[in-house]
Amino acid sequence: MSIGSVYERAYKGDFNQVKVKVDENKSLLTTPDSNNRLLVHWAALGGNENLVDYLIDLGCPVNPSDDTNSSPLILAASAGRFEVVRLLIGKGAEVNHKTNRGQTPLHYACSKGHKEVVKFLIEAGANINEVDVLGATPLHRAAAQGRNDIVQLLLNCEELKIDICDSTGSTALHLACEEDREVVASMLVKAGANLNTKNKEQKSPLDICSDKLRKMLIELI
Prior knowledge:
The protein is mostly helical. It folds into 2 domains: about 1-125, Alpha Horseshoe (Serine Threonine Protein Phosphatase 5, Tetratricopeptide repeat); about 135-220, Serine Threonine Protein Phosphatase 5, Tetratricopeptide repeat (Alpha Horseshoe). About 50% of the residues lie in helices and about 0% in strands. It is elongated.
């Protein structure tokens, strides 16, 4: 079995085949592939909880970074691998680790709509107001994607800053209106989001939404 196929086996969750190779050569635990990913990255991405546990117990680092500065926790959160997310955090993974684009596990889980993962990350101390290189928060990501249940989880957090502006001056409400996410926009307005905030184009959320949504939101005020 080539080194390349060991990473593939880790991703697919072939526990026994990976174990045989690692038992033969312990340096595989810390040998990166061409993307600077370790076996634990691939096992986490594939959702292989037992293999992740095994690799870490043998001495594989919990919080290594690949060539995008993604940790195993970020990959697991993005893929919705709840059991692996829970395991990694239990092993001490950094819940607010950021990629080179400034995105955390919570950014990815919110964007992809992984509700169970989002809930767990928040309970584990994820910063819900963290901004990426474009100034976007997890709420921006969830609102733009129309993730109603994720938005509600974030709104339930007392520390949420609902009107943070991204690099274009847009709030989460701007994005929800722009994408015609009626339910999300209504939820945000009911939670106190500012309808009058102007983005860098000097447009408020009401300026960029459909006539139907504008009427709906005005009635909520």
